[in-house]
Amino acid sequence: MAKQQVIVPDIGADSAEVIEWMVKVGDSVAVDDSLLVLESDKASMEVPSTLAGTVVELLVKLGDSLSEGAAIVVIETADATAVTAAEPQEAPTDTIQDEAPVKSELQSSAAELPKAQTGGSSKHSVLVPDIGTDDAVEVIELSVSVGDDVAEGDTLLVLESDKASMEIPADATGKVLEVAVAVGASLKQGDLIAVLEVSAASSTEQVVVQEAKQEAPVVAAPASSTVAPVEPKAASVAPVRAAEPQAASSHSEVVYAGPAVRKLAREFSIPLGQVSGSGPRGRILKEDLHAFVQQRLSTPTATASSGTGIPAVPAVDFSQFGPIREEALSKIGKVTATNMQRSWLNVPHVTQYDDADVTDLEAFRASLKDEAAKKGTKLTPLPFLLKACAVALKDNPKFNSSLSADGESIIYKDYVHIGFAVDTPAGLLVPVIRDVDKKGLWELAEEVLELAGLARDKKLKPAQMQGACFTISSLGALGGKGFTPIVNAPEVGILGVSKSSVQPVWDGSSFTPRTMLPLSLSYDHRVINGADGGRFMNQVVALLSDIRRLTL
Ligand code: COA
Description:
alpha+beta; CATH 2.40.50.100; Dihydrolipoamide Transferase; seven-stranded mixed β-sheet; 20% helix; binds coenzyme A
């Protein structure tokens, strides 16, 4: 066992403030686990541990201003061979001083680019400054758009690596002519961010010239309407000015939050712009996200906007119109209500309708009635629907997919599990039949009976209601000509089945009586477009109309 200190690495600024602890005494940490968050005027960064072990002492407190080399924590490591500190305060030089990968010096090289002169103004390219890493870093927020006026120091965009988020400021005052990047792009030092139109006067005022290789920045040339813009030979704009970010920015939408908070917010789709920050300078902390979510969850859905701007349904005292009776929703009823609302609000639905000619299917089903009875089962249209959907799901993989939680990708499933809605006295339940594509009609018929029985007896296990890729909601036994089923998100499709009936169908020369089964297919229009939907529906209709195809 050895006690060692972790110190502040090169943070690219003279000092930065401790704004968040990410560990406490007694915590076990691994190398690279974040210990605390430091914030300078323009960057927040998580400082990682260079040691693995147990935190035994915190050497700084929130609000402290730290510089490179300051000791942060004492960690007891198990590794006896590690460099061992004596008592940290007495021998700080014995501490592990590995350079942690945190660095966010914002030193722009923008002025090294020539400025294109256009009359009284010039074009100025803003490049990614030294961001302390050679790795590409992702753009997570754009704070300006074409046409905006920006002042030197205004935030143009926010970059985020695993360990730090940094605002990249404009290094000149002017109008944004071009934004060269988009959210999600990966940038390195020297990449073009934006082109500004800088007026001659303001470029003279703003450009701070620094002779190449000279240490100290040269003072800006004085503003003068008669002086031509300074064309630096080999110059760089001085480091970002130390202004209060909000005061300096003309963009009130700028959000102050560290990478960990931003990540958490993205995971839970929390709009950071709507969260009030309780940290220094309004910085959003994890606790603020928790409070935001708690507040949203505790707001009764019936009386408040869901946060999506949808007006709340007013509470009405119905007893003023006549006698009433109030019954609490069952647990299943409440879960169903929540799931339905979530799907309906999140998923842009499209529903397509068609009729399948099931005359032959019904004749085949009737011919198997006795055999089914002998087997102790019942062959309803549902096993045929399951089978047809399984084939269509395999042939139309988008229907067998889900949108990833962050909306960035589509997850395709190589299994075909299908849920089917069961109406029970306690409410709607959706048991799932696994690997429908690998099962025969008899097997599916038995499983439908078994799972529907378990559902009605409230004996379904949670695992029997999980993992569906697609759902069938059959109201065929009840009637109806069509309905709009709600997608069971994160599934992307659901097939509604209404009651079949004999209809006169034109066969080209005469009307013939055919048994037609009305189908309604709802799908998530973020993943599936109308043509995909049409193809899926056509295939299901074709399969049900000619069940020999199910065997192909
Ligand atoms: N058209 C005409 N008749 C149909 C039919 C259809 N689309 N679907 C089923 N039938 C018939 C069956 O053949 C059966 O007739 P039979 O006894 O003469 O053979 C009868 O209706 C009853 O069928 P059922 O016992 O309901 O079996 P099923 O396999 O069709 O359905 C369940 C099983 C579990 C899906 C069904 O009982 C159920 O609960 N449906 C409700 C689903 C629901 O609530 N959806 C809404 C979700 S919001």
